[in-house]
Amino acid sequence: MKRILFSLLLLAGFAAANTCTQAWFEVHNFSFLYKKDAIHIDSIYYKEYDNDWSSKYIYKNNQLESIVFNLDRSTEIVSVYISKDESVLVEMGEELLISDSTAGDTSYFTQKVFRDGKLVQDIIHKNAGLYSSELSYNPGGNKYDFTELFFRNDTLVLRFIDNYYTDSPEESFTYYVEDSTDDLTCYEYKDDPSSNESENPSTPKYTLTYHKNSQGYSLKYFDKKYLSEYFMVYPNATTAIRKQRPAVKISPKARYFDLLGRYKFMK
Q1: Angle at alpha carbon of residue 168, lines to 162 and 170, rounded to 5°
Q2: Under DSSP, is residue 10 helix (H, G, I), strand (E, B) or coil?
Q3: Is the dihedral of CA 108, 150, 56, 136 positive or negative?
Q4: What's the rounded Cα separation, in Å, for the pair 136 and 134?
Q5: pTM confidence score
Q6: Contact predicate 260/27, CB 8 Å
Q7: How far apart are the C-alpha atoms of 99 and 40, rounded to whole Å?
Q8: Beta bridge partners of 185
């Protein structure tokens, strides 16, 4: 499987700009949390079959203050505190406690997720140029996961290790490859030895399209069943996410969201 993907990557004939892959990297490296003048997430729209939901990011004094999730005819507000002091928490609902530090050219920040005052996730992020990683700890399951995102020539590589710090870690790779004729489009290829899905590794799983606009850009990530669209804005620019019809129902196992609005589940 890896040999097939490696050959595919070599023959792809990438465009020099890497526009789509660099945009996808930018969405996921959270640089806006420690660079006040960085492009940042304004909102995200999700659609799966006939269900859709959205999240809106609220900033105050160039810092993230809250995330508003609109789902299932209801609204959930996640409060965000840029602090190391847990005494700022009100211990109601979901709260994110974020602190940052810098060592040379490398930036670090921690993200602690609390639900009604109880720690449910602890993440250490690392950013160094075109490299980003996160070490995630789930106290409920006493479980670590490790993710890193980096460029290998013109390909964006996501390496994920499940059950990190154990005797039986499970490693998988995801590759983001630009279209050979259009640097605003790229494709996601999976290389997951542990997956039970019978997929052709040379067939893209998702497509990504990058769309520039006067305030920043949007990035769509989709297949036939699912769509997520990320709206990124430059400093001092604002956008308004289109009004969506509330329809989605959240699984009772869903306990909290990460910074990109993805569901996290408790076992």
Answers
A1: 35
A2: helix
A3: negative
A4: 6
A5: 0.81
A6: yes
A7: 17
A8: 209
d(CA 31, CA 162): 24
CA dihedral 67, 73, 74, 80 (to 10 degrees): -10
The C-alpha atoms of residue 41 and residue 228 are separated, in whole angstroms, by 13
What's the angle, vertex CA 237, arms to CA 236 and CA 241, rounded to 5? 140
Dist. CA 87–CA 89, nearest whole Å: 5
Tokens of 93: 């609902």
**Confidence (pLDDT) at 214:** 86
Give pLDDT, residue 160: 95
What's the confidence (pLDDT) of residue 158?
95
The string of pLDDT tens digits covering residues 36-69 is 677 889 999 999 888 888 999 999 888 889 999 8
pLDDT value for 71:
80
CA distance 177 to 183: 10
Q: Which long-range contacts (CB under 8 A, 24 or more apart) does 108-111 make?
A: 109/30, 109/33, 109/34, 111/259
What DSSP element (H or E) covers 252?
none
265 pLDDT above the threshold of 60: no
Distances (CA, A) of 126 to 105, 134, 175: 11, 6, 20
Query: Highest-confidence range of 66-80, 143-157, 240-254, by mean pLDDT?
Result: 143-157
Average pLDDT over residues 159-168: 95
* Both structure tokens of 131: 């490299």
- DSSP letter for each residue of 31-80: GGGT-TTS-EEEEEEEEETTEEEEEEEEEETTEEEEEEEEETTEEEEEEE
